[in-house]
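Appendix B. Chain record.
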Amino acid sequence: MRLSENQARAITRIAHEIAGKQARVRVFGSRLNDDARGGDLDLMLELTEPVDNPALLAARFSARVSRLMQGRSVDVLLAGPNLMRLPIHDIAFKEGKVL
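Structure tokens predicted for this chain:
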């Protein structure tokens, strides 16, 4: 996985600050390939409680992580009890790595 231990801890801390201590973060996509270079960061934020404003939550999380990653593009997928599950969620759950 092309994230340092410090970056992984910081991303998890940001998730807990924004979405609560129960939130989990999975990295999926090209960042799992150690031989690849560049690329954006694909994250799935897993929530146990319903989300009132998922777009705002995803935007806040993405912006904070992007700043942490020196402006790298960060794509955020949310998974929660009141959110629609799409095929991309299945990929993230199957292939992603929990931070």
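Further analysis of this model is presented in Appendix C.
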